[in-house]
Amino acid sequence: xxxxxxxxxxxxxxxxxxxxxxxxxxxxxxxxxxxxxxxxxxxxxxxxxxxxxxxxxxxxxxxxxxxxxxxxxxxxxxxxxxxxxxxxxxxxxxxxxxxxxxxxxxxxxxxxxxxxxxxxxxxxxxxxxxxxxxxxxxxxxxxxxxxxxxxxxxxxxxxxxxxxxxxxxxxxxxxxxxxxxxxxxxxxxxxxxxxxxxxx
Length: 200
What we know:
By secondary structure, the protein is α/β, with parallel strands linked by helices. The protein has helices at residues 26-37, 81-90, 124-133, 154-158, 164-187, 189-196; strands at residues 7-11, 43-45, 49-55, 67-73, 98-104, 112-116, 139-144.
């Protein structure tokens, strides 16, 4: 990986207040947290997204982290690929500097996992991005939301708001996921995996 060039951290979700509190929107929530840490808010960008430029994280030794664009597509989840590709073109971002933050059913609620490439696990946002870019070889911050209870359909589960107990834990989850995204950028995915995949 080269030492220059802009990073792009994209949080997935669906647009509008109806979906804002959904489990499916946790990626967008994390990116809003990253923008807040950078002292800014997302603003409308012509690439069918909201975006902001921040210094992300802190480098080992205490210096501010590198420049990064943090963004949330303003399209629906299953059309995320177009805005992501447009943002990468506009900001000249290489695929090895794309970090996608998304909800993950196959990870226990409250856990954060990281990977580069691999399958989409039925996630329509990831499927759209892989299709638009012609590669699956981007970095992912996978935010665990757990499996639906009983016989609830997974599609219904992800499009519901976090429950009362989950909402109490949500600030911690968003903080952990934002920390993970920062660490991927500042120290690389292997260091981040060692930190976030290790038993507490």
